[in-house]
Structure formats: structure tokens, C-alpha cells
Amino acid sequence: MINTNQGATASSGLHPVESTERVLDCISFAQSQSWQARLLLIVLALSAGAVIGTGLDLQASGSPAQALTLILWPLAFCGGLLSTWSPCGYSSLSLLRPQGSYSARSVLAWLPTILMHALGYLAGALLLGALLGGVGALLSAGSLLVPGAIALALLAFCYGAHQFDFLRMPYPQRRAQVPHDARFRFRSWVIGLLYGFALGTNYSTYVQTPILYIVTLAAALSGDIAFAIATVCVFNAGRFFTHVGQSIAGKRSSCTGFFGHISGKGGNR
Fold first, then answer.
1. DSSP letter, residue 26
2. Transmembrane ranges (predicted)?
3. Which of 24, 80, 89, 196 is least surrounded, with the fewest CB atoms within 10 Å of its CB?
4. Closest Cα partner for 217 from 172, 166, 268, 265?
5. DSSP letter for each residue of 85-151
6. Four-residue CA torsion sign, 260, 258, 118, 189
7. Taking the complete model, does pTM exceed 0.85, yes or no?
8. Helix (H) or strand (E) holding 43
9. Which residues of the chain have pLDDT under 70?
């Protein structure tokens, strides 16, 4: 894969200045495990889930809704982290980092880009969360706490079995990446906003983890627009956190190579 960094060109409007970095494509993929090993992992995951769920239920003083929230939001944040380990995540890194060598001036020039990127994630969460919560409210899904919790548990188990190749589940997604031609047409802060919104709606690009489907169903079943928006915001916070982390650490090529390697090993199914 070749990454051409022209963020400075887009932000300044001057003549193009090519700065090309080569990052090798991932050619190493996860090895298939025996069915016994995969079954053992499922049993361990179920056992850990039962222990954690019981502990959180006790922590929530017997409130089922609060216990579910304590489980859902950390899961949503982890799902956001995993979602950035994707083709869309690592391919957009070079456009969302400070340009050139790190200095006070380059970081200050980069701040509008990353802030607008965060605003894009927030706008995406508002849109998706309001839609899911609104649909749930119209269907009075909020009154179905116990059936809803059972549906979430079944969905999580089925997609877990899917990940371990015991079951095939649908993987609805739009197989597209963020628009890379935006770098030639817009300033860097506009690119940050566009990319944040595209990734923040979560279904506009590749879906990298089935945790998104669990978060989606939970937000809809809540029947509460505010809760649904907050849940999607937690998911998007995980996505944004990863971008911020890579923006302040390491060389651009090393970060892109790392995410490419992780994406190649995980992959969407």
C-alpha cells in the first residue's frame, strides 16, 4: 500500500508537494484453531461474562437497567477501539496527524483538524442515536427490559459463535472507505469533519466488529433517545481515542503499518 500525504497541500491551497511513504500490505493472517480450542474459548468467555455480570448486578444494587448499562458502555467503548483497527481507520491516519515534524507550531495547526474530527463523531452519534432511540420510543421498546436483555444476550452469543466459526451470522455493512479524494478538494479541518461524521455514523463504512450490532440493538431497545445517543457516543469515543493516540505517538508509517497488520489479522467477515 502506498500512502501519499498531501494534507499540507489541502490545507494551504498551494501547489502539490508529493511526500510518499511505503507501508507494506499485511500478508500474515490469523491461523485457524481446532474446534476444541475454539469451544474452550467460548466456554471461558461465557464463564467470564457470567462472573462479570453477577458482579455488576451486585454493584448496581439490584437495578437491572443500571447493571445492563455498566455492561453495555464498556463493551461499546471496546467496540469503538476495535472499529478503528480497520481499513478505514488506518488508511485515514496520515490525513489526521500533525504535518511535518512535531513542534508547537505544527500541533497548533493540527488542533482544528482533530477538534473538527471529534465534532464529526459527535454529529454522527447524534444522528444514529436519535434514529435508534426514536424508533425504540415509537415501538415502546423501553417497557420490554427483560425480553430485550434476553434478545441482546442471544445476539451477543450468536455473533460470538460467528467469530469462532461455529455459526454464520449476517454482517450488514456498506463496503466502502472514507472518500480519499477529499484530500485534494478540502482543507484539513474539513477533511477531519467529513471523516469524523462518516466514521461516526458507523454504518457509512466497513463494520469491523459485531459489537456495533449489539450496541445498535441496545440503543433501539432502550426506547430512550438520550440514552441511545449517549451509548453511540461511548462507542464513538473509542474510535476517536484511537485516532488521538496514534496522532501523538510514533512515525506515520509505523502507525499505519501497525493498524494495517491488526486489520489484516482481524478483518471483517
1. P
2. 39-58, 70-96, 108-132, 144-167, 188-205, 211-235
3. 24
4. 172
5. SSHHHHHTGGGSS-SSS--HHHHHHHHHHHHHHHHHHHHHHHHHHHHHHHHHHHTTGGG-HHHHHHH
6. negative
7. no
8. helix 35-59
9. 1-30, 60-62, 64, 85-95, 100, 180, 246-269
